[in-house]
Structures are given as structure tokens and as C-alpha cells.
Amino acid sequence: YISCFIHYLTQEEKSPATIVKYTREVQRFLRWLSQRELDKDIVVAYKKALTQRYTPAGVNGQLTAVNVFLKSIGRPDCCVKLMKIQRHMFCQEERELSLEEYQRLLAAAGQRPISLVIQTICATGIRVSELRFITAEAVQSGRAEVSNKGKRRAVFLPDKLRRLLKSYLQKQKITAGAVFLSRNGRPLDRSNIWRDMKALCESAGVAPGKVFPHNLRHLFARTFYALEKDLSRLADILGHSSVNTTRIYTAESGAVHARLLGRLNLVVT
User: Fold this and answer.
1) Separation of alpha carbons 164 and 169, rounded Å
2) What b/e string do you get for 140-158 counting C-beta neighbours within 10 Å, with b at 16 or more?
3) What is the DSSP letter of 131?
4) What mean pLDDT is predicted for residues 35-64?
5) Nearest to 80 by CA among 65, 63, 68
6) Comparing C-alpha atoms, which of 175, 101, 163 is closest to residue 135?
7) 3-state class (DSSP) for residue 163
8) Which residues contact 227 (CB under 8 A, 6 or more apart)?
9) For the residues of 43-66, what is the DSSP string, one character each?
């Protein structure tokens, strides 16, 4: 089942990260299923079991993988509906990375490569999985061609970032291929970056819950939108198919919204 499912996902041109995630979730489902007969009722029971352990978003992530698997084996009749989640108007303050906290992280990183990794992600808005497309060739041209989730887009590198990257390339004697490499010469992956970022939290005085690669993308989106107020253009830059997804990235905290309401001066007595 699993090998056939992986082949199915590959034929559907799913990204490597999606294949790994979906495979993991389906393996969990099959272990839970054990020797029981597969039908709609048993999948509904699995959904109920998930709701007792995970958040609605976590449940939906696992059910999405299971539904794809069921379709791949010719059992779409067993697919279940995802949980309905009301979109949050505000982001969680305890997870919102501020510009000041971002700068403290960079100060804590000093001259270490992770500083340049953080700035590259935050200054371009790329996904951490897209960092491999930041190559020596892209640094020279000022433009990276990113291919992800079946879409291609151009990512422009700011001049100041290019100067930093050129200096780094020269020191590392890298003339072609990915800029950021691990010790074994492979492009840095999410786990490498996540670990190095977490190591900065204590000295930077930033809560660990705010420090992860994808939060840099959110900081880019909020900063861009505050300056340009152009949601459609931001969606194109981030590689989103829908501006509804982009709206999530530009959400401010409830405290920011409360301050804005206070400045309206509509309470006069």
C-alpha cells in the first residue's frame, strides 16, 4: 500500500516534503486501522479519535493525507469531510515575531552563516524549502527562479542582500550551485536551519515559540503590506494562488488592532 501510494504521489507531482508528510500520516492511519475492514464508518471513527488528540488544523492535515490515500486505492466512498475552521482575524501575539526581535536574533547570530540564512529568507519572503534556489548564479543575476508546488516564480534579491551573499560566496569559494550548504555539501534543509535558529533564542531574549523559519516569511509579508498595502502583488511575490491565503500572513495581533481603534478618537465623553 505504502509503496504504491508513494508512486501515486510522485505521479501526481507532489513535492518531496508533501510525499514525506502524507506517507507518515497514512502509515499512522494504517497502524490504527490494523486488521479491521476499511469502510466509511471506520474512517469516521478515526476522525473522531483524532479530534480528541489534535487541534482542528492538525486533524485536517492528517485527514487530507488519508483522503488522498483513499482516492489512490479507489475508495473515494470512504473519504471524510474536514473540520470547519473559522479564520482568525488576528494572529497570536505569543507567536508573532516583531522587527525588533528579528534584529536581536541577527545580533545574537553575529557573523555566523545562520545570520545570512535568516536575512535571505526574511528579505525575500521565500519558503525555507525554497532556499536551495538561492544559488551563486541567482546572486550574480539578482533573480532566482523558484519552482515549488507545481508553480514557477521569479524571486528578486535586494542589492544589499546580494552584496552580503557575494562576499559570503567569495569567502566560501563557491562559484556555482546553492549558496548555503551543510557540512556534507548538500543544500541546508529545514531541520538544520530550525536547530540553528532555536540556538539563538536565549542569547537574543526571544521566546522560542516565535523562532522558526516560516515566521520569517510572515514577518516579510507584514512588513511589505504595511508599506505597500497591495495584497494581490504580495500574493504573487509569496507564490500564493489565492489572496485569502495571503491575508493570513498579513494579520496583525489583537493588541495592534486595539491600538488602531484607540486612535480613531470616536469616544468623546
Assistant:
1) 9
2) eeeebebeeeeeeeebebe
3) G
4) 94
5) 63
6) 175
7) helix
8) none
9) HHHHHHHHHTTS-HHHHHHHHHHH
Letter string b/e over residues 1-12, b meaning 16 or more CB atoms within 10 A of that residue's CB: eeeebbebbeee
At 146, list the grid cell: 523558484
Q: Give the three-state DSSP class for 89.
A: coil
148-162 per-position pLDDT tens digit: 877 889 999 999 999
CA angle at 141 for the pair 140 and 146, rounded to the nearest 5°:
110
Q: Residue 222 has which C-alpha cell?
A: 507584514
Contacts of 204 (CB under 8 A, 6+ apart): 101, 104, 105, 107, 108
Contact 252, 90 (CB under 8 A): yes
146 contacts 130 by C-beta, under 8 angstroms: yes
In the block, residue with C-alpha cell 508573532:
96
Residue type for 79, please?
Answer: C
pLDDT computed for residue 252 by the predictor: 66
DSSP at 83: P
d(CA 3, CA 41): 25
At 91-103, the pLDDT tens digits run 666 788 999 999 9
**DSSP assignment, residue 73?**
T
Hunting for cell 469531510 — which residue is that?
A: 81
Q: What is the largest CA-CA distance in the chain?
A: 70
Instruction: Determine how many CB atoms are found less than 10 A away from the CB of residue 122.
Output: 23
What's the gap between Cα 216 and its chain centre?
9
